[in-house]
Request: fold
Amino acid sequence: MKFSNAKGTRDFPPETLVKRKYILNIIESVFKKFGFMPLETPALEQLETLTGKYGNEGDKLLFKVINSGDFAAKVDDETWKNKQSEKILRFICEKGLRYDLTVPLARFVASNRNEIVFPFKRYQMQPVWRADRPQRGRYREFWQCDIDTLGTNCLMNEAEIISMAVEIFKTLNLNVTIFINNRKILEAIAEKYQILSEFTRFTNIIDKLDKNDFESLKLDFESLGLSNQQIEELKKILKKYTFDTNGINQLKDIFLTNPKAIAGCNEFYEIYSYLEKSELNEKAVMIDLSLARGLDYYTGCIFEIKSNEETIGSIAGGGRYDNLTEVFGLKDVSGVGVSFGIDRIYDIMEKLKLLNHIRTSDVKVLLCHFDKNGQIYNFQKAAELRNNGISAEVYPDIKKINKQFEYAEKKEIDFVIITGEEEINTGVLTLKNLKHRTQEKLSFENVIERLNF
RNA sequence: GUGAUUGUAGCUCAGUUGGUUAGAGCGCUUGAUUGUGGUUCAAGAAGUCGCGGGUUCGAGUCCCGUCUUUCACCCCA
Reply:
């Protein structure tokens, strides 16, 4: 194959796209049901909008877009000769592909603050790009389905996110667990051990706990300056707790005095108070103190959702960010949101054969013919059928009838209308059910009745 | 970004220590069957062996580069 796709990007053939849209539609309809409004932003952002928001690793994964025109001429000889990529970059590119949908949202909200109705509830389903090495469930171009609420501190929004996630995955028939944590509690731990200055490194290490056992990370914790006793203590604390009064009480008992931890626990209590009476099953939501999340901008509650059946990393993630719009000049606007990764959801559902029932075509009937006269007649009949709300397709060529049947079968069209001289003369339609191999002669009205089930 | 790994017909894959004209199954086309398919039978088309370079009398096979795939890190949806 001479022309392959760019690394980590894919084509979506019709059969795939039909299934993707099925998932997207479910997600979108739930978003709408909760009162979120759509937003789209450009694929391209100013590079300075994107840099510095995702941590060091994030910046490395940004796709940069080279300036048009004679970009090389604008680099001075000295910089060019020294081959320092970072410095040259500043001269030759000023745009980049978006890395997620949250930062563009913050930019949008900050610059449209006067037109926006707050609290601002928006959903956004668009591709994002990351210059990562691809592997299973990891692509360089993938779609995120985001919802965010900005301009309110109310923790009902966190509870709402959980409800939405539960509804989405219930509708999709996927067994998942929603893991939640709170950055305030993680900060409290870091404070307790006086490693707050190393907070990012600390969260990076504990985030590995889902893949590695605690023992193998001991050296990492030691490198933070923690004593053996402290590490043993951590081992007891960094685990999962049930998301109910019992579990939160356990947590609170650990950090009796630390104000940040108490704040974090109180947030859990409040979020739980909204959900207490809903029909969540006990294992749908878990508090997981080893959940950290890499993105730098989270300040409160954080979420991550994983499939119970497939290990492909997380299929959704998000959290509360108090200061994200501040870097775009808008203070005191807190936001909370979550992003669903449709590509991973698709991969899991495909593997679990949960998408096999999706029909590739909405067409109810294929009109077949033996000659030009039949085709012309069918062209008119198809128009009449469509006018009566029936999606119909005329076989687009004059070929043997069995070819036409095979075409219908491949496109999962159950019915065919067979038009020959006899049908044209009498005005009666021959309707055949390909699945049952039955066939009957019907009037136009009866055909509509038959196909309108 | 680090270290591995993959690529042969539309698809899944064979292809010996380097040796003539690169094979199979499925699929596809045509016919048996000129108004009724999915079975069966017969025939047929199909490949710059990912791409570029090198070694060799000779490369699908060995070497280098490159693109792509998958995997482990890093990190993440």
